[in-house]
Amino acid sequence: MRVSHSVSSRKRHRKLLKLAKGYRWKRSNVFSYAKNAVMKAGLYAYEHRRSKKRDYRKVWIARISAALQLMGMNYSTFQHAMTKKMIILNRKVLSNMAIEYPEVFESIVKEAIKS
Length: 115
Prior knowledge:
Layout: H1 6-19, H2 31-70, H3 75-84, H4 91-100, H5 102-113
Helix pairs in contact: 1-2, 2-4, 4-5
């Protein structure tokens, strides 16, 4: 007796087409196109979950640098001073502080560069 795989393959196809829901044109309803589209989408999602972290770090550094330029200082000098003084604040907190609480940020900068 010949075994029919139609039930399992149809289930597999339906599951993958469900993942491709909302895609445009053949990518949403033709299995071979949808399979490729879903694989690519997964790859891009994986890559961008990692690049998102790098992108945010760049944004934070740019914001801190902009706030420091108003005080006549550059980012690398500030980071070096922070390390020497053992002031441990991450870039996200410093960036947020520079935007929302400029007075506090300025006091931290003054504390870091104080000899």
